[in-house]
């Protein structure tokens, strides 16, 4: 497994693989890999070669967000990727991705202004720009994204469709800890008391899923129950908890189409997200 920092070197390696008839699976990440990322890599093994990018993208962090603090451990990540059978890690420096004079961005309206976009106004512009650039560099057949970042996944699918990009986007299920907490690199910020309190998110998700499975279609009733569960936890503060159309991210009152029920909740200072989707039969 090679670790490459340079864009032209990645392009050369991938071109060579393509000439040999290989298919390329790509898993973009910001590193500090966990089993959630691992599940994307395992799925990407359906291709002949797997590329993982590890890049903490400054463009997707707001000025008061955790860019500097974001956990990084390239050595551990490389070991994990090697064990999983990854062929290439692309680990550029910010100056390689955004050299002096860089001034292009990819923005997507509407979809990016709801949910996480309301409290993170620059986030999805940064995500779309870097994902676009990474896809141009790696030129994969398929790229793999976690459903935990459901809004990100919907936005990337939209961007790929709107810009007629030549890649298949594959969504992969949320991976949870044994006690239900959705795996996230940001879980490492939690103190032990906050780690316990963070279970309010998954408890609320599981209760919501059960209600919908049992036939609840009224969003007001569903969200009230889900919010009550989170509000019982003194360390938790809801940023948002909403039911939206899974394609447009616009709020719905009734579950009468594919719907995403998504939340962002502060546990102390740590902002965590979780969600579930439902497609009425
Ligand atoms: O989901 C992430 O880790 C990031 O948003 C991504 C897609 C790697 C872009 O930086």
UniProtKB/TrEMBL annotation:
It comes from the Bacteria. Pfam families: Pantoate_ligase. Its EC number is 6.3.2.1. The active site is at 37 (proton donor). Pathway: Cofactor biosynthesis; (R)-pantothenate biosynthesis; (R)-pantothenate from (R)-pantoate and beta-alanine: step 1/1. One of its GO terms (cellular component) is cytosol. Beta-alanine binds at residue 60. One of its GO terms (biological process) is pantothenate biosynthetic process. Keywords: ATP-binding, Cytoplasm, Ligase, Nucleotide-binding, Pantothenate biosynthesis. CDD domains: PanC. The keyword ATP-binding applies. It is an enzyme of class 6 (ligase). The keyword Amino-acid biosynthesis does not apply. One of its GO terms (molecular function) is pantoate-beta-alanine ligase activity. (R)-pantoate binds at residues 60, 152. It is found in: Cytoplasm. ATP binds at residues 30-37, 146-149, 175, 183-186. It catalyses: (R)-pantoate + beta-alanine + ATP = (R)-pantothenate + AMP + diphosphate + H(+). Homodimer. Belongs to the pantothenate synthetase family. The reaction proceeds by a bi uni uni bi ping pong mechanism. Catalyzes the condensation of pantoate with beta-alanine in an ATP-dependent reaction via a pantoyl-adenylate intermediate. This is Pantothenate synthetase. It comes from Ruminiclostridium papyrosolvens DSM 2782. The gene is panC.
């Amino acid at each position: 497994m090679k670790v490459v920092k340079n864009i032209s070197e990645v392009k050369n390696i991938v071109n060579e693989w393509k000439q040999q008839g290989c298919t390329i699976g790509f898993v973009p990440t910001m590193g500090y890999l966990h089993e959630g990322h691992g599940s994307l890599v395992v799925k990407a093994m359906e291709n002949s070669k797997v590329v993982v990018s590890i890049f903490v993208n400054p463009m997707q962090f707001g000025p008061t967000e955790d860019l500097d603090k974001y956990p990084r451990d390239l050595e551990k990540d490389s070991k994990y990727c090697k064990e999983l059978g990854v062929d290439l890690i692309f680990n550029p420096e910010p100056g390689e991705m955004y050299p002096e004079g860089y001034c292009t961005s990819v923005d997507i309206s509407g979809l990016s202004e709801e949910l996480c976009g309301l409290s993170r106004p620059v986030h999805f512009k940064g995500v779309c720009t870097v994902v676009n650039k990474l896809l141009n560099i790696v030129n994969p057949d398929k790229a793999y994204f976690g459903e935990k970042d459901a809004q990100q996944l919907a936005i990337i699918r939209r961007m790929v469709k709107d810009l007629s990009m030549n890649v298949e986007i594959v969504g992969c299920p949320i991976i949870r800890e044994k006690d239900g907490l959705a795996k996230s690199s940001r879980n490492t910020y939690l103190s032990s008391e906050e780690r316990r309190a963070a279970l309010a998110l998954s408890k609320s998700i599981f209760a919501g899923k059960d209600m919908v499975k049992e036939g609840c279609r009224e969003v007001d009733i569903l969200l009230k129950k889900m919010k009550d569960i989170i509000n019982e936890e003194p360390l938790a503060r809801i940023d948002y908890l909403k039911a939206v159309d899974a394609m447009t991210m616009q709020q719905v009152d009734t579950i009468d189409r594919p719907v995403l029920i998504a939340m962002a909740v502060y546990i102390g200072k740590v902002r965590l997200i979780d969600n579930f989707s439902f497609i009425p039969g």
